[in-house]
Design a protein that fits this description.
Length: 400
């Protein structure tokens, strides 16, 4: 049995996180061979299908929610075989009868050099020949600029009437107002239901959500519908918050962001089985002493968040079927008595081969959630490592 998990992504920042995450998962599946199969069961997150030419496709089992114009050069139809340069975006706005119609037109969005490298015909015939082209951060304006997986048409949902670049979508209330529109809410839920109905052994949901913007309201109300429909299925939620320079932010904007986080956190806490907050606001370069990164870079901070999600969720995606999503969330939530969990990341892990260390010594790593004051010793801690081996360690589970 595949034990399928459906991923939901809400907002532009979480779609950046998701693009990195799917690149990581796609890379793992590419390098598995019959002689050396991957330790991860890719069918948990990916689905098989056929394109219009009858060729086999492998696409993420995901629904990505965003505003119009946030796709970059990715086709609005979510064509599973390629990216395509969009025609000019045209947005018509008429808030109520009698008001003047506003027309916003945006020029075509060119493909990044990285995406152009994916157009090699050999790649379409054999995805394992995907080139290891370098990605220049200066070329990245949209999360689709570096996404190297094929996307199913049902995986992309754009909220029409609001444009990524010209419409404010900055409050929790903006998101809830969108969801009060029956057409929007039904269309969103139909996307989720589509992927659920094709599953054989559906486990639950993995959710990546912007909590600082209007998508905190969108995710709250959609997860409420999901919780009503799939009450027995676990929901593992990662709340993702970007860095913003507080010295340049207006007080009103900062207050809005704080308010969105509070409303979103409270609602998603009640609806999720387990919830983890990744907040780049307080990250420092000293947290990652062996890594050169800029926390002001959305591309870099989301890559770190994706790496942490990939590693932390490894246990319920193992081919050995040692655990499932329900038992995983139960474990990190102390049997559901405490839904809120923290997450730490060490990248890379530096090991002294000549000095024997315990796992807890090696993993003295920075918290990725918002934290002030003295570090609180957790009642329970579980550590996971990905794509590496550490000598003299017989178990990956540690109780503190």
């Amino acid at each position: 049995m595949n034990r399928e998990v459906i991923t939901l992504q809400f907002g532009n920042f979480s779609n950046f996180v998701g693009a990195h995450f799917w690149n990581i998962e796609n890379g793992n599946s590419r390098y598995s061979t019959p002689n050396e199969p991957s330790e991860l069961n890719s069918s948990i997150l990916f689905r098989e299908g056929e394109n219009s030419r009858g060729r086999k496709t492998v696409t993420p089992r995901v629904v990505m929610f965003g505003l119009t114009g946030s796709l970059g050069s990715l086709r609005k139809s979510g064509n599973a075989s390629s990216h395509s340069c969009l025609n000019s975006d045209v947005l018509l706005q008429q808030e109520s009868l009698g008001q003047k119609v506003e027309l916003h037109e945006f020029p075509p969005i060119p493909k990044s050099d990285y995406l152009k490298s994916l157009e090699n015909p050999q790649v379409h015939e054999n995805p394992s020949k995907l080139p290891n082209a370098s990605i220049r951060e200066t070329d990245v304006n949209y999360w689709s600029d570096f996404l190297n997986v094929q996307i199913h048409p049902k995986s992309i949902y754009e909220i029409s009437g609001l444009h990524h670049k010209c419409n404010p979508f900055v409050t929790f209330q903006h998101g809830t107002e969108i969801m009060k529109n029956a057409d929007f809410s039904e269309e969103m839920f139909d996307r989720v239901r589509y992927f659920v109905e094709e599953c054989d052994n559906f486990q639950g949901f993995q959710c990546l959500a912007d909590v600082h913007s209007g998508f905190s309201g969108v995710s709250s109300l959609l997860l409420l519908e999901i919780r009503d429909e799939f009450a027995s299925k676990p929901i593992l939620t990662f709340l993702n918050t970007p860095y913003d320079d507080t010295s340049r932010l207006k007080k009103k904007f900062w207050n809005q962001r704080t308010e969105n986080t509070a409303f979103g956190f409270c609602n998603l806490y009640d609806l999720s089985t387990s919830i983890i907050h990744q907040n780049a606001q307080n990250w420092t370069t000293s947290n990652f002493s062996h890594l050169n990164f800029q926390k002001k870079s959305q591309f870099q901070t989301t890559a770190l968040m994706a790496a942490s999600i990939h590693t932390a969720t490894t246990p319920f995606r193992l081919s050995s079927q040692s655990t499932n999503l329900s038992s995983f969330t139960r474990t990190i939530s102390s049997n559901f008595s405490k839904k809120l969990s923290g997450i730490s990341l060490s990248i890379p892990i530096i090991c002294d081969q000549n000095r024997r260390k315990s796992l807890s010594d090696i993993l003295k790593v920075p918290q990725l959630n918002h934290q002030r004051g003295d570090r609180i010793r957790p009642l329970f801690c579980e550590s996971f490592m990905s794509n590496m081996s550490i000598p003299d360690l017989s178990s990956w589970k540690v109780f503190l």
